[in-house]
Specification:
Elements: H1 6-16, H2 22-39, H3 44-71, H4 79-90, H5 99-119, H6 124-127
Helix pairs in contact: 2-3, 2-5
């Protein structure tokens, strides 16, 4: 998997008018953690796995930035408003049955969990 350099990523965000939101920062921080790990590895297979994980999180950050731009709201910063909209739509979060709504809700909770684990400096394997 090919990953982007910092300058390529910055250029993409400027060109596409993406915003660096909390969700994007969490994913880029995760990519950075894999970059740090890769610097200390000697084994080719482990190094390749680390590079692939770093690339995965960079591309996820791009996808999240694109999604937030298209939907005109931020996943983490506007979470309360989104949850309120879901409560209005379904009556209760337990009754959410639209696949897209469930995917966004899951992504929000995964990002929050990832942020907590990053703050605790948990092992990368526990963060994913």
């Amino acid at each position: 998997m090919q990953y982007m350099s910092k300058s390529e990523l910055k250029e993409l965000f400027i060109r596409e008018d993406y915003h660096v939101t909390k969700a994007v920062v969490i994913l880029l921080k995760q990519a950075g953690r894999y970059a740090t790990r890769a610097e200390n590895l000697q084994d080719k297979s482990q190094l390749e796995a680390c590079e692939n994980s770093r690339a995965k999180y960079i591309y996820e950050a791009i996808e999240v930035a694109d999604m937030e731009k298209k939907q005109h709201w931020r996943l983490l910063e506007d979470k309360a408003h989104y949850l309120h909209e879901l409560n209005d739509k379904y009556g209760d979060l337990d009754f959410v049955n639209d696949f897209d709504d469930l995917k966004k809700l899951l992504l929000i909770y995964q990002l929050e969990d990832m942020a907590v684990n990053q703050q605790k400096n948990e092992a990368l394997e526990l963060v994913e």
